[in-house]
């Protein structure tokens, strides 16, 4: 029956194109999700705890959201999205616990999705092919393959890029993937994805340098943090062109940070301006609610208010900031739990491939989080890659599939137990 669960993972990653039509948000995964969650709870005490923590997290959000004045219907809709994502991640973890070969099989799914995305993109470029359920008013301008927007596609490919970068595959394979990745995202004008990939490469190079010098990644990262502001100041008004858009370094980095520090919105339309203003307005609302959070969908509700309304956007367009602002201290606790492996990686003298992948992923996380708005939550193809990055890898070399890292199968048996069994 394992093939049924892996089939469900594949169905979830194709969520956008498996809808009945572009105007109907119901998908096979959404219909099956409650039954999957119920089955996991009935068969695993671990799954019961998983969903209990989700329920407590959601109740906290409902309480602070109601106090802030967010409509209950908006909160319920947002919590449902979080529940659907949590169920998907729970399914991946559950597969790891019941199937020793789950990691390899999930890798194969990512490989298939990545290859399919590039194949369909090539066909769309040549023929203009479109899936009816992912067509929108601007779809003719981009190649979105089996995703709803090109940013959906770019986010997934960034996860795959991190896996490829930190793999033990040959350099020519990594280079080939990088060129294809850059070409497709340049075609789609996915600037955040391109910058995120460059950040990953820079972090990877830094980690290699730290390993060769036998210093901890934390020391190298702190050195880089000191040098980056100096570099930005040195570049000053140097123009950077990505796709059809031009930026200067002050506009791209320093000025938005100054605005955020002083809570001074631009009140201008545009990608960078609206993202900065959205964050400023949300911070002001969070401050008015005693820093307890705005509740699920609280940031969207805030930006719909007359005094906080943006010119060309309706949401934060920043997934990390959205969770932190909506759940406040509860989100900080979640971040502390999730970032513990990252902290351990920073303190390692010789980081493992898994730790290097984790550090590259976290380095690019701020840019990845601004690549989408609400679609970030339901981009299950991306979350599949994030799960593979976050879950421990093995350093042992096996026959890795094309353009994916070598990851040994997970074994639920502790090392000490195996040793006792041998003796």
Word description of this protein:
Helix 1 crosses helix 4 (72-98) and helix 13 (319-327) crosses helix 14. This protein has a two-stranded antiparallel sheet. The protein has helices at residues 2-13, 28-43, 45-68, 72-98, 102-127, 150-165, 171-187, 191-213, 217-235, 249-262, 271-288, 298-302, 319-327, 329-338, 340-346, 353-369, 380-390, 415-422, and strands spanning 239-242, 245-248. A hairpin with a 2-residue loop joins strand 1 (239-242) and strand 2 (245-248). Mean pLDDT is 83; it is low at 394-423. The chain has one domain (1-215, 263-390). The protein is globular, with a radius of gyration of 22 Å. The two termini are 34 Å apart. The chain is mostly helical. The protein has 18 helices and 2 strands. It is found in: Membrane. The chain crosses the membrane at residues 28-46, 51-73, 79-97, 109-129, 141-164, 192-210, 217-235.
Notable features of this structure?
423 residues; mainly alpha; two-stranded antiparallel sheet; 2% strand; globular; disordered C terminus
- Count of helix runs: 18
- Radius of gyration over all CA atoms, rounded: 22 Å
Total of domains: 1
The structural class is mainly alpha
Mean pLDDT: 83
Number of strands: 2
Order of H and E elements: HHHHHHHHHEEHHHHHHHHH
Give the overall shape: globular
Strand order of the largest sheet: 1-2
Q: Would you identify the regions where 5 or more consecutive residues have pLDDT less than 50?
A: 394-423
Helix content: 55-70%
The fraction of residues assigned to DSSP E strands is under 5%
For the sheet with most strands, the description reads:
2 strands, antiparallel
Distance between the termini: 34 Å
Pfam family, one: Wzy_C
Transmembrane segments: 28-46, 51-73, 79-97, 109-129, 141-164, 192-210, 217-235
GO molecular function: ligase activity
Domain O-antigen ligase-related: 177-335
């Amino acid at each position: 029956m394992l093939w049924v669960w892996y089939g469900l993972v594949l169905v979830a990653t194709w969520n956008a194109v498996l809808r009945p039509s572009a105007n109907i948000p119901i998908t096979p995964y959404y219909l099956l999700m409650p039954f999957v969650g119920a089955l996991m709870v009935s068969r695993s005490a671990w799954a019961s705890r998983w969903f209990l923590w989700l329920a407590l997290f959601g109740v906290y959000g409902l309480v602070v959201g109601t106090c802030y004045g967010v409509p209950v219907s908006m909160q319920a809709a947002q919590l449902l999205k979080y529940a659907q994502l949590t169920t998907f991640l729970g399914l991946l973890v559950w597969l790891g616990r019941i199937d020793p070969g789950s990691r390899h099989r999930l890798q194969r799914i990512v490989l298939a999705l990545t290859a399919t995305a590039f194949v369909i993109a090539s066909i769309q470029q040549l023929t203009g092919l479109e899936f009816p359920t992912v067509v929108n008013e601007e779809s003719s301008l981009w190649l979105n393959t089996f995703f709803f927007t090109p940013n959906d596609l770019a986010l997934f490919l960034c996860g795959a890029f991190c896996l490829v970068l930190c793999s033990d595959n040959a350099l020519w394979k990594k280079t080939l993937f990088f060129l294809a990745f850059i070409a497709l995202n340049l075609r789609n004008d996915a600037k955040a994805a391109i910058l995120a990939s460059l950040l990953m490469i820079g972090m990877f190079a830094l980690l290699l340098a730290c390993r060769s010098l036998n210093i901890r990644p934390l020391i190298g990262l702190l050195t880089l943090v000191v040098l980056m502001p100096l570099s930005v100041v040195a570049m000053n008004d140097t123009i950077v062109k990505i796709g059809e858009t031009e930026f200067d370094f002050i506009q791209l980095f320093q000025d938005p940070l100054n605005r955020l520090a002083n809570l001074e919105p631009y009140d201008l339309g545009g990608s960078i301006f609206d993202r900065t203003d959205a964050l400023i307005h949300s911070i002001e609302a969070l401050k008015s609610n005693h820093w307890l959070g705005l509740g699920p969908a609280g940031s969207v509700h805030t930006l719909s208010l007359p005094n906080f309304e943006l010119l060309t956007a309706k949401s934060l367009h920043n997934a990390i900031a959205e969770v932190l602002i909506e759940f406040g201290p509860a989100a900080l606790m979640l971040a502390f739990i999730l970032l513990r492996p990252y902290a351990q990686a920073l303190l390692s003298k010789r980081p493992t491939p898994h730790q290097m992948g984790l550090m590259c992923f976290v380095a690019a996380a701020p840019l990845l989080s601004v690549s989408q708005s609400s679609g970030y939550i339901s981009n299950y193809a991306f979350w599949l890659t994030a799960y593979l990055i976050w879950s421990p890898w093995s350093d042992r070399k096996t026959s890795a599939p094309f353009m994916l890292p070598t990851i040994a199968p997970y074994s639920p048996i502790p090392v000490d137990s195996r040793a006792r069994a041998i003796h």
